[in-house]
Every structure is written in C-alpha cells, then in structure tokens.
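DATA SHEET
Item: assembly model
Revision: 1
Owner: S.N.
Input lines:
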Amino acid sequence: MEADDPVEPPAAFRDRANVATDVRERFATAWPEAWDAAGDLLDWFEPYDAVLDWDGEGPPFRWFAGGRLNASHECLDRHLAERKNRLALRWEGRLGETRAYTYLDLHREVNAFAAALRELGVEADDVVTLYMPVVPELVVAMLACARLGAPHNVVFAGFSADALTTRMERADSAFLVTCDGYYRRGDAMNQKRRADRARMALDYDLRATVVVERLGGARLGPDQHDYDALVERHAGATVDPVPRDAGDTLFQMYTSGTTGTPKSVAHTTGGYLAHVAWTSRAVLDVKPEDTYWCTADIGWITGHSYVVYGPLALGTTTVLYEGTPDHPERDRVWEIVERNAVDTFYTAPTAIRSFVKWGEQHPEAHDLSSLRLLGTVGEPIDPSAWRWYHEHIGGGECPVVDTWWQTETGAILVSTLPGVDAMKPGSAGPPLPGIDAAVLRPDGSECDPGETGLLAIRSPWPGMPRELAHATDWGRAAAGEEWCYLAGDEAVADEDGYITVLGRADDVINVSGRRVGTAEVESAVVAVEGVAEAAVIGVDHPTRGTAVHAYVSPEVDRAADDSLRESVLAAVEAAIGPLASPEQVVFTPELPKTRSGKIMRRLLEAVANGEEYGDTSALRNPEVVGELEVRREGVSDE
Ligand code: WT7
C-alpha cells in the first residue's frame, strides 16, 4: 500500500486546534518532563514527585511516581463546579431509544452504584467483571469500580460463556455485572443465560452478580441483584473516591496474543489516564463544549480509552452507540451525527469500507456540517477509503487522523496532530511527540526509509501497561540489547518519518479491527471430535480487512462433511464467540509441513490469498499444496 500525496490541514481547523506546532519541539528538548503536559490535564489528590522514575535503562518504569488520584473523580467530581448540567453521555440504543446523562446525573448514579458494590463486598483491588453491551450502566459500573479502587475487567458482550469463564478465572474475579439480554440487529440475545453458564463453570463461587434489565423479566437467583433496585436503594449515597497510586491498576482486559490463551493487559490509573486525556486533546482535538462520537464497543480498548476515559476526563459529551451501522437503515450513523451535531467522529476502516460500498447517497441525505475532525483506528486504511471518508463525510474540510495504537499501548502512539501535520492518506503518520516509535530490523537496528521492518517503541510511554512497566521479558527486541517493546506489526517509514503500518507480523488476525489469535481458534478446532489437525490463517477480505479461514484435516475414519464443518464452527463459537468464526472451513487430508513437522501457515496464507508461494521442495509433503489450491474457494464479500 502506497501513501498518497500529502494533504495539509485546513487553516480554519489549525487556528482553533488544541495543540500547536511548538509541542514537538518541547517534547524533543525535554523528555520525559514534557509529559507534564499530560499530567497537568489531571487533578491530583497528591502531586507526583517525578514525571518518570526509572534508571535510564530497563524496567521498572514509574510514570507520575508519588502521585495519587482517582479516575472517577477525574471523570466526574472535578467537572461538577463548571459543568454539572452539561451532558456527559448521550446514548443511542439499538431500538432507536435515546438517553442522556448530565455530569451531575452520572455522578449521582455512579455514587449510588459504588455504594451498592461496596455493600456487596467489593473493596479496593477486587476485580469486578463487566459483561454488557454498550449501555450507560456499563459506563456507570466502570466509574463505580474506579471510585472504589476496584479494577474492572470488561469482557466484550459478544464473547461466549467459555470465554467469559476463562477471563474471570484468570483475573480471579468474584464479582460480575451483566445484563439480562440485548438486541442484536432486531433480535433479542439472552446474555444472562451465557453469564449463568459461565458462573457454573467457574472453579470458585461468585460473591455477587448484578443484572441490568434490558429486556425485562429475567429471574434472579440467590446472590443475584437487580441493578435498578440497587441504585434506587442507594440513591443519594456518596462514596468518597479512593485515592490510588499513579501506578495502581485502573482496569485490566484480555486480548488475543500468539498463544492459545488470552493475554492479560493491566492499565494504570495515572499514566494511562494522563495519556488518554492528552491524546484525546491533542489528536482527537476534544473540547469541553463538543459532542464527540467514537463508534467502538466499550468491550475493547478503543471504547475504554476513547469512548469513556478520554472524553469524560476532558469533560466533553461522549456519544454511546449500541447498534450496528446498517440497522435499521444504512444511514443510521449519519442520522445520529446530524441529530446530535457531532463534532468529532472516530471509527474503524472496516466501517468506512462498508460506507464506501453502500454509497455516498446515505451521508448525502444528512447535514454533516457539524463535523470538524474525523478519525480512524484499528487497521490500515487504504488511500482510496481515506479519500472517500475525507471527501464524503468530512466535506474535504475535516482533517482525518489515522491513529495507530493497541490494547497494550493503552492510548494513541502514532498519528498526525490534526492542526499541525500534513496528512498522507494511507500512512498513520509520525510518532506522536514524546513517543520513540521506529521500524527495526530483526537485529534491532533501524530500517532505512522504504525498508519494511518491525514496529517498535524504544522508550517508555505513560499509557504503557503494568506488565511492560514492571517485567523485563515482555517486549525486548529480538536481538537488540536495548530495552524496547515490539508491537507485533510490520511497518515501513518514509523519508519524513511517517509510518505506514502494513499489518500483523505475528499469528494474530485483525478481523474488522478486532484481534483474533490463530492459536486460540486452533485449540478450539482441534478439540472437535474427528479433527486430527488444524491451521487457522488470515485471508484478505474486501470489507473486514482479514477473514478467518480454518484448514482442517479430519481423522482417517472421519468423513469431511457438513456435520464436521458445523461442529468446527460451533466449537469456535462456544470457545470464543461468533467474532472468531471461520468464514471458510477447508478440509484437507494433510496440512503442508516442514520436514521437522511444523505446519507452514505462511504457505497456507499465500495460497489462500492467491500470492506467490515459491519453492515447496523443502516441504515434507509438497503435493498437498496443489491440492489446496483446488480446494480454495474465492473470498466472498459480506
Ligand atoms: C492492532 C492492535 C487500539 C486500536 C484498536 C485495536 C492494528 C491499530 C492501526 C492503524 C494500521 C492498526 C495493528 C495493531 N492497528 N490501529 N491506525 N493502522 N493498523 O486494538 O485489538 O489491540 O489491535 O491493530 O495491527 O497491532 P488491538
């Protein structure tokens, strides 16, 4: 993918942008002290002694060491004096319902729910699992946990019961807040049944479950509490925000890595919050008087950082969207932008590709003139989709920020600054000020411009997770001596230092901007009776970016038929959820292997993507490759 000619930010935007040109200079000459700019966006109970406390070499890295704060106070209490009657949340439900919360409303409900959680036994450092779609109660629960100093562990509502069990057990979480169900497109989904199944599979007893009523009529068991009844009973309660050390865990979440089990990532109260607040201001240009909309589900890191914590820390109005972009109609998103006069719109390339496919008549039917800035995140965006977004959504007048970051980084690390930098469609941009991102060769040396390598972060950043801040073995460059974090992405930088991210360099598949670990899917597939071996790969897909394909070799006496295919799909859905469901299951008597017996996933990927795969003579079973080419079906569009 080649980046196009640069596009300069419009003067009208530049003149009002939150950050100006001199910010890069400041970070370049005073690192890490310049990160004070982020620390200053927060209201500390106890000021920090140092922006960064470390020995100049490896971990531990202590951001804002000595500082004490509470994230719920940052997102709520401190805004009451100035803007208690301003909207904090505007919720757009799946069935077209809307709800709005002022900062005062949200503060009240968070206090009441925090009092309820405390009564149920939640104390500082207890992990509370939240398993809900995008409803205001999820935000309330997150901030109530934060208020108590209890890390939350949000599990995406589309994950299966088994996936929930694993994520609770690994987090040692004995508290669950869930809902009875929710609507997906027009259909009611029974969430509580999944939560109950997960609870029964746990190898310990839950201490309490709270159920938000979304569908109505759920029957509650012992130790299960109705959310509304709890909030009503504790109405008017106040819970003092529990002061936390900057390095204490604000939340943890699980993401897919290269192993068969999900990878835990814990983010800190001070460094993380300062970093998301700073990037919300500098990159997303959030202003307190704005209405800001990031379409991500709160179940993923994007929702944590840029639906909840970043915008609320800055005191803006954040839009929560429960639905899908094409329900009930394909102009749903633009209708919401128009009705709420949204200033900033932040979404994923997979959605933009769908918008392109559906046609510009949908945005054209609405007044989108409130928009000032557009953002994208989650996957590479190709220049043509970028240009469509810029022209048909932004009217050619809104800068587009292509923001690169990850669950692990907590906040944006690579992006243009919208009022400062020229944009290059297809390229994320330069590292943000204060971020030492580079493209490296496997030996740790820096690639030349135009040379593909591995994306690495060579100095610590405030939003870094605890695992990385404290461990020495989490992210060292393959052969380099110096500390660095390898992101798992392949990238290339140009002469101006703009980084174009090409995709994952490891066994993680990015499906519609969501991470799926091939090893996780494979372990579900090989557990199916009658399956001998399986290899799961990512295959290019026109709207989703990448689709999951499973190559399955059945046991000798098992027929490769539809019932086996169904079992494979059902197993993945049960172990992980529909998001990891293979779009194709290809049966093959054998998988291509090296002489030492290693499955050649790269070769399968090349065959499936119709790419050159070169010499196969080093394989133990080269004849299988021709066979696979025949079996491959074309990739279908959605
Ligand atoms: C992976 C992280 C936090 C973002 C949501 C996904 C890919 C993310 C970009 C971008 C190209 C991108 C990378 C990254 N990615 N943003 N702007 N351009 N690729 O978070 O699930 O942790 O996935 O998403 O491959 O490693 P995640």
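QC remark: The chain has three domains: 11-70+264-503, 73-86+103-242, 507-637.
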